[in-house]
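Slide 14.
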Amino acid sequence: MAALTDQDRGEIRELVEQKWVTAGLSRDWGATMALCTEDFVYMPPDHPVLHGKEEARAWLDGFPSIKTFIQKVVDVVGDTELAVGRFSVEFSVEVDGQEVAGVAKGIASMSKQSGEWLFTAVCFNWDAPLFPTE
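Slide 15: predicted structure.
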């Protein structure tokens, strides 16, 4: 396989930093799932793994309203068909009328299908608990 091109890296950056974020901020889970392969695997923190777009979308339906959301690609490796990227996340959500902010880290695998990069799997975890335990 050929190494990732600058164009591939730019498309992956756009997928992670713009397309996913824009869909999440607008709670457009259909647009979010359109960025994923049919066999997409989602691994949110403190939750069992979700298999497929339907399970991921159902989980996202229950996610609090997102107020702010920034993702930044830290690194991406791979070839022109399969890539893995690490990213950082800063966000805030509304919970019971209060805004709760958090920082997270994530990793995603992506494959190029019909000339377009799509997520095959996404895993993320909070850097610190969003809600302190007593």
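Speaker note: The helical segments are 6-25, 29-34, 52-61.
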